[in-house]
Amino acid sequence: MPSADAWRSPDIVCTQLEKTFHSGGKTISAVGPINVRFNAGETTALVGPSGCGKSTLLRLIAGLEEPTVGSVQIGGQTPIEVTRRAGLAFAFQDAALLPWLTVRQNVALALKLARRGKDEAKVSGLIDLVGLSQFADTRPAELSGGMRQRAAIARCLVTEPSLLLLDEPFGAVDELTRARLNQDLPALWQKPGTTTLLVTHSIAEAVNVSDRVIVFSPRPARIVGDFTGMRGSDSAKRAVMAEVSSALAAADDGLLTS
Amino acid sequence: MTGRIAAAVPSLLTALVGLALWQALASITQGLFVFAGPADVLRAIIAEAPLLFASAGITLKSATIGFVLGNAAAAVLATIALAVPRVERLISGVALVFFCLPFVATGPILRVIYGVGDGPQIVLAALATYYTTYLCLLVGLRSMPASWLDLVRSYGRGRVSEIIHVRALASLPYFTAGLQIGAPAAFLGAMVGEFTGAERGLGVLSVRAMRGLDVDMTWAIAALAATLSALGFWLFGWLGRTLGAGPPPLLLSASRQDLPRSRAAALTNSVGSFALLTVSILALWLGLMNVLGLSSFFAKRPQDVFAFLVTDPGASANRAILADSFWQTLSLTFPGYLVGLLLGAGLAILLVLRPRLAAGMLPIAIALRSVPIVTTAPLLVLALGRGAVGTIVIVAVMIFFPTLAACLEGMRRTPQSVLDLFASYAASPWKRIFHAQIPAMLPAIFASARMAVPAAFLSATTAEWLATGTGIGSLMALTASTSNYAMLWSAIILLAVAASLLYAAVHWFERRILKTFASEQLAI
What we know:
The complex is a heterodimer of chains A (258) and B (524).
Chain A: H1 4-8, E1 12-23, E2 26-38, E3 43-47, H2 54-61, E4 69-74, H3 79-84, E5 88-91, H4 103-113, H5 120-129, H6 145-158, E6 163-167, H7 175-189, E7 195-199, H8 203-209, E8 212-216, E9 223-228, H9 234-257
Parallel strand pairs in A: 3-7, 3-8, 5-6, 6-7
Antiparallel strand pairs in A: 1-2, 1-4, 8-9
Helix pairs in contact in A: 4-5, 4-6, 5-6, 6-7, 8-9
Chain B: H1 2-28, H2 38-47, H3 49-83, H4 88-99, H5 103-114, H6 119-140, H7 146-153, H8 159-170, H9 172-195, H10 202-211, H11 215-242, H12 263-291, H13 302-311, H14 315-353, H15 355-369, H16 377-384, H17 388-412, H18 416-424, H19 429-468, H20 471-481, H21 485-517
């Protein structure tokens, strides 16, 4: 039985994790084998060439996909067990706001899905926090891409998850908006104790908002680089950025020559 | 506001031209007692207003009850198919076979079961409306970004939560579209139900007026039925828009199925589902008759039909009669089907060359597609005689308007970027039509061709029943009145199986073609 602490601030252990898909009689290996431990309370960025399988890895951790081989343990529990008590929240690239609900209702939906009681004060508080108080009763169609992601992040946070899985949450917004979001939002989700995984294809984003960057090779996704130490000075950041860049370039070359 | 008025001008003009043509035709053919012009129709309606409106109210009531029941059934079936994917093919198959039951025969049998009253009208209205809603919902319940469903699952919730929080509301545009198509169909079902010997209602008046060669009255009833159906169509369109449910991107589209591993596996799979479907239908048939405790005098069981067609001493004679009349019907249904389909699609293509005319035609085609053509069968037979031409024209007209409306809609969906691409090379209109707009229209053509199969049989057999006295429609009417129920049930089975198989054939062909030309247009 894992301790309550492990729930509040879980580490994630992937053991011999593999995922293959079948399509049109062909078998495509998307992930692995991967052996990795994501430390409790840390923010880890997962980067790699697009389509490399890093999103599949995130979905495996979220319990949205079943592993073909191997296992995922979150604070000693399976992903499905964690989702059942709403211990994690997933931010989707397309925000995944339901178009017939207002921002407020979309945020409140997470409480409903998590079988928690209504908590209007908390919903309003989070909407304020992400800077959407004027748009609380607006439907998603009338919001900009950046506003939609803000609403989605508010929805993620309302259930106070101990594990936050972000799948290129700012992938679909323009560069300027992305910079703004990266300035405002990480401070909100980086609560002490929350373990965060962020899939991104932006090296700058990865290095700036996380404690650790892991670089993946393309299909199947395997770990080809693991970097830490960018929380210090700007020069340390730049050094890590250069290392991540060259690891990524090597992974990309592998894609081109294979 | 002026913009909206300006936009309505082409439609109004087309409508006025249509009315003028109608009046002219009536004036020219005066003395033939075939056409009644708009003025005569109006006069007849005013003269018999109390009776007509009271009857319309009765028909409307049956249609509404049947509509509600049919759509509720569609929602339940689609939800089951969604919740238990294994049974989806089976449910779809059974639903199709029931949809293909010939009203001309089920009507009289329901009349025997229910006696007087509005039972048959309600059941036929429900049967006429449920299948299109079922098809729309089947697609609608799955048409959403995968992330919406992942969101529900990421909180550890299952399929029921998916349906409650996401699928039910996401399918709303498809549901209202299904209701929209179903509203005129329910009215048609109720009227056909009344043809079978109800005491009151618009259908009763229609049969009476036709038998009495009351041309003005026949036209007046058809016009009233058409108006009420069009109102129903418009009402649900308005409801859909009010609920914020825009028209869904694809309607009645073919389903995309998982690619089977091999050809042999595909064959085994198909043979297996076909056998399962056959057994299920037979079991349902037998079960329904026994549970309801219906007398085997009029409620024949599978073994009765088998004996009648195979083991009885007179079986070969029975088969010969059935086959003869079926070929008679088929020889008129098939040309009518082709003509209706080709004219509908052809006119849509021509109208694309004249976008302004197309803009005027679309609302009218949509309005006319909602006209219960079958209820105008007596008119067309009056106009064209009891020969082959009359039946062919009825079938063609029944199919023409839905096809035209669907194709005009489909063609409007050609992506603007593709049109811009053709314009940037100054391509000729014909090039644009052949390479961009006809491919964009293909899903609409095929959906129409598929849905037209049962409609073609319905209109042909109704025409034969009410007017021409030939073919399997007439055979069914005759055997219903002489209580030769074994023959009647054999005819029902033959027609339902034929229509279902032809529908399946079009569906198969549709999937093949669309997989190549418009794979993105296949529903999930």
